[in-house]
Design a protein that fits this description.
Uracil-DNA Glycosylase, subunit E; TDG/mug DNA glycosylase family protein; DNA damage; five-stranded mixed sheet; alpha/beta; about 30% helix; about 15% strand
Length: about 170
């Protein structure tokens, strides 16, 4: 299976970083394509997007200042299939992408994504005090996977902090 295309451009307002593509995403060629994944619904309900997008419209996010990438590009059924070596390579690649594209806010879609990237284990939800790459805002949000045990409303409330951050930092 082929890795997914990143949707990146310089100076994005917000970059979403996932673990890696699901098998369904790899099959369709679109981010967060598994019907059980709530990513697109969460973006809309949290006020991040003006309407409900779907996975086939992922390429449109840069038009509203948002981007998509993953810490690991190889598709798997579950994140626990990702190897330590893949995470190591992914950390280096992600850091290069961030330094080159310079997004203002990076939203890590899943605490585990940020744990792997930052190498920190104790991480609160929301804005992080010390970003991995200076000059950027690191924001940790719950995974949008349907397997997450948090109530959808609680997940949406965490994501709803991002539009506030965008406004506070005059990013619109």
């Amino acid at each position: 299976m082929n890795p997914l295309q990143d949707y990146l451009k310089e100076n994005l307002d917000l970059l979403f970083v996932g673990f890696n593509p699901s098998i369904r995403s790899a099959e369709t060629g679109h981010h967060f394509a598994n019907p059980n994944n709530r990513f697109w619904k969460i973006l809309y309900k949290s006020g991040l997007t003006p309407r409900m997008y779907n996975a086939t419209e992922d390429y449109m996010l840069p038009n509203i200042g948002f981007g998509l990438t993953n810490i690991v590009s190889r598709p798997t059924k579950a994140a626990d299939e990702i190897t330590k070596e893949e995470y190591q390579i992914g950390r280096e690649e992600l850091k290069r992408k961030l330094e080159f594209y310079k997004p203002k806010i990076i939203c890590y879609v899943g605490k585990g994504v940020y744990q792997e990237f930052s190498r920190n284990r104790t991480i609160p939800w929301g804005r992080q005090e010390n970003p991995v790459v200076a000059g950027m805002i690191d924001f940790v949000a719950p995974s949008s996977s349907g397997l997450v045990r948090m109530k959808l409303e609680d997940v949406i409330n965490i994501y709803a902090e991002i539009p506030v951050l965008l406004r506070e930092n005059h990013i619109e």
